[in-house]
Amino acid sequence: KKSREENSSTNIISNQSCSSSSFLPTSSITSNDLNSSFLSDCGSVDARVVHSTHSLSSKENSPSRASSSSPSKSSSKSFPGDVSRTSQDPPSQPHLAVYPKDEDNRAFQMQWFTNRPWLEYSVEKDSTFCYYCRHFSHFIASSRFTKDVFTAQGFNNWKRALAQDRGFNKHVNSQAHIMSTANFFEYQSRQQSGTTVLNILDKSRAELIRQNRNKLIKISSAILLCAKQCISLRGHDESLDSLNRGNLIEILKWSSTTDPLAKAILEESASNATYLSHQIQNELLNIMANQIQDRISKKLAGNVYTLLADEAVDASHNKQLSIWVRFVDDEHELKEYFLGFIRLHDFDAASLAKEIANHLVKHNISMSMCIAQCYDGAAVMSGQYSGVHAILQQNFMPKAIYIHCMAHRLNLVICHVCLVIPYIEEFFSILSNIHNYFVSSGVTNRYFCDAQKLLKLDTTSKLKKWGNTRWDSRFKSIDAIKNNFPAIIKALEDLVEDGGSRAVGARGLLVHMKESMFIVAMFILHRLLGPIKILSDQLKGVCVDLGSAKNLISTLYEQLNDMKNEKSFKDILGDKMINNKK
């Protein structure tokens, strides 16, 4: 008996598993929401547990294999309907005024129930049965079980019911009845104390689930912190002897000094249930992303919106399409949300339109509610008949007009103006050469920093590189040169004086920077591009609409026209002269 009990209750497991399909998205990604939503269906997986409670409870329901803590259940087909059917039913002991008599004019006596709590009587069959043996005969051989009249056809030989070695006394002294009685009292004791095997299993399982959920909440909070700070989760070496195991694990290690839960994650978790694998980390990130996207789609439901898309290249040199939506919410506030990146494999208009449509459908966003599309001016996006906007408008978004992004248009204007005036193109080429000369070498950069300190300039100000695709870079590059002009001249002169291979490049740059054309162009472009940068920042704002964008552009146009006079030019020359004196 002991060995069978041990074998039947060796290990315990929840029949649930932790998978991404059991996480349900909610409207937020805070740690409380993680506890209440996407962790609500997460079960436990532990190396210490190997059997399911489902299979164990099935064994308990089997008359021949159930443990001593849970009763067997006899088939209702083998017994009359007026006796107990399961161990949950009390023994059937009907108190009748008159019991039916047999051929010998003998009948069952009601006083026989006294001191025999195991005795059951069936009026239907006029026979007695043993309540204990029927429901608690767990380890009795099936052959002996069927031969015992108190568990099979029933006992009704009333003449010998009270005989010394027959009837009730014979059954009470049988080994089968003694074992069944012991099982009954053990079961009753455990029921009263609430420590049945099933309860023990449920409590252990519930505690294990609670612990694992708390671990997942802690890990998810650390992942969320890394995501909000835009830092990677993993490092190149996450082995136990590594000095830096990646941001996620290092955050948990730091937290473990004061947080027992973080310490338990790192030191006490089973090897197959740490929840720190790359796959689990990515699944948790995807769950958070899905929650955010689901919340956005719910906010967007029933509202018209504008679709924005732009192509970019990531750090791995893969082309991606970023998708945004703009709409007015129920509180009449303009909102703009990022929906995600689409990895691009084909770059024709039909493929791009299909990817955009699939992305919107995936997030339950109605394409018929789209009233505008905003892209750059590339032919694949803006083509009148076969561009992305035309395909989407013809097939999915009949109301969605195409708008060329205002910020893109402003950048194109700046780029084209720089190509129209020959010296402007040369000027920006000189800026690039200055940046490369001081940044590419630690020696030249040291000369520049020493000159900044000597002239008491802002040492935090660094030279900036400009580019056609970085809209603010032109002004920032000119602004850095203008603010550090004396330090650059000083550093170049020192490099020329010291001689060596670097003196050749320094001498050439020094000649260009001392030219009047360069100085005048620097001040004029700085004066012009300053307001243009402000406009560019405003056009990229969330709250700007088409009407306000046109007003901002008109205001800048008037401001630039006002600069076309002698006074403005003298102001620039005055700045130049002051700078030369310095």
Automatic annotation (TrEMBL):
Low complexity biased stretches: 8-27, 58-84
Provide the protein name.
Answer: TTF-type domain-containing protein
- The source's domain of life comes to Eukaryota
Q: Which residues form the TTF-type domain?
A: 104-197
Region entry Disordered, spans = 1-27, 53-100
One Pfam family matching this protein: DUF4371
**SMART domains (alphabetical):** ZnF_TTF (SM00597)
